[in-house]
Amino acid sequence: MDTLPVVLENLTFHVIQIKWLSIALAVILIFGLSAIFYIFLSFKKLFKEDPVSSDFRGTAKMLLNMNDLDGVVELARERIEQFPGEIFAHWYLGLAFYRKKEWHKALHEFNYIYEIEPSWRYKHLNPFIYDIKEQLKSNRPEIIKR
User: Fold this and answer.
1) Is the Cβ–Cβ distance between 31 and 39 less than 8 Å?
2) What is the Cα–Cα distance from 143 to 146, expressed in whole angstroms?
3) What CA–CA distances, in Å, run from 16 to 5, 8, 13, 53?
4) What gap in Å lies between CA 124 and CA 60, rounded to an integer?
5) What's the pLDDT score for residue 140?
6) What is the pLDDT of residue 45?
7) Which H/E stretch holds residue 61?
8) What is the pLDDT along the chain (146 residues), one digit of tens a residue?
9) What is the residue-wise DSSP string for 77-130?
10) Contact present, 90 and 76 (Cβ < 8 Å)
11) pTM (2 decimals)?
12) How far apart (Å, rounded) are the C-alpha atoms in residues 113 and 91?
């Protein structure tokens, strides 16, 4: 049989092992949670909306709702000068041309959006492009290229 000192020695050894395993698990947990928190903050920054962009979009939407189409065109063109590839500037410019019935200019903007962001094609662009092509067909069928 084991004597008391041997049992106490074994018990002490196991308690020390449990202590170090607990510390190791706590350190791993802290680093893991820190990494997850850092990744979350990084993604949040990626998807955080640019306040200048949202100001532009809000102003453009307001002008469009007020039917100030020339104001939208001017605002969007200024925005495109500053940020040539900004999709929302081209979007509002295309919408203004569409409402002004300037079909070729609207079609040009919508096709440009399709080139830089093809995912917009089905959700946003197709109804406008289809209608523009129908308008052009009914006005001057020889203009449409297939």
Assistant:
1) no
2) 10
3) 16, 12, 5, 58
4) 17
5) 62
6) 61
7) helix 51-65
8) 568 888 888 889 999 999 999 999 999 999 999 999 888 877 766 555 555 567 889 999 999 999 999 999 999 999 999 988 889 999 999 999 999 999 999 999 999 999 988 888 888 899 999 999 999 888 765 555 54
9) HHHHHHSTT-HHHHHHHHHHHHHTT-HHHHHHHHHHHHHH-TTHIIIIIHHHHH
10) yes
11) 0.60
12) 7
Q: Evaluate the CA torsion angle 52, 57, 60, 62 in order and state its sign.
A: negative
Task: Give the span between the Cα atoms of 75 and 45, in whole angstroms.
Answer: 27
b/e per residue 96-135 (b: at least 16 CB within 10 A): bbbeeebbebbbebbebbbeeeeeeeeebbeebbeebbee
Q: What burial class does residue 53 get, using C-beta atoms within 10 Å of its C-beta: 0-12 exposed, 13-18 middle, 19+ buried?
A: middle
Residue keyed to tokens 């000068």 = 81
Please calculate the CA angle 139-142-146 and round it to the nearest 5 degrees: 110
CB neighbour list of residue 84: distance below 8 Å, 6 or more residues apart: none
The CA radius of gyration of the chain, in Å to the nearest whole number, is 31
State the residue for tokens 């020695």. 9
